[in-house]
Protein: HAD family hydrolase
Organism: Xenorhabdus lircayensis
Amino acid sequence: MSQQIAVFDLDETLIGGDSSQLWTQYLWEKSIITDPRFIEADQKMIADYCAGKLDMHKYLAFSLQALSQISHEQIDIWLTDFVETKIKPLFYPAAQKQLDIYRQQNIPIIIISATVSFVVKKIAAAFGVQTAMGIDMAMENGCYSGDIQGVPTFREGKVTRLQQWLAEQNLSPQHISVYTDSINDLPMCLFANEVFTVNADMQLRSEAEHRGWNQLNWVL
């Protein structure tokens, strides 16, 4: 029984970038997607996300059309290369160090991200983190569809999914530490006992100052 757990957001928290946007760019560079509307949709997604008004269902329904005819096995092969070439260079050294500290203390680490889970889990594995949650996409004929399965790990959905996971693991930690950069994770921050903001956006920074949360600045 662990009395403590550490929960990390992924994008702009553990890595200096947005994995969703980087993945689309990777697919574009490899000419796997050729329609510039997918790039534009990602730029709009980032803007809406930062403004706290992203329609996640609508964004994913559009974004995943590009992969709807491609087998998940093939996507996994691309993901391996993507993590190696695009993501690993963006790991914050301080993030890796912090993960190692928790590991040495046998404190369970969970990565919870509003990116699709097949991307999140691949990146988490590269960090050596076994427990990772993202937005689960329904499968059709061995391909990812644009339909979300279960509760999306977005805003208060992150708290719901964490609570579900804790119940499944039969864990009731006395202390939950959370690391994030985004105001979208405010519900998770309020659920936690201890908050570390990492390169926080303006709204989260003002919450952190108001609530006396720890503010970290991680660089590449």
In short: The longest helix spans residues 72-87. Residues 13 and 180 are 6 Å apart (CA to CA).
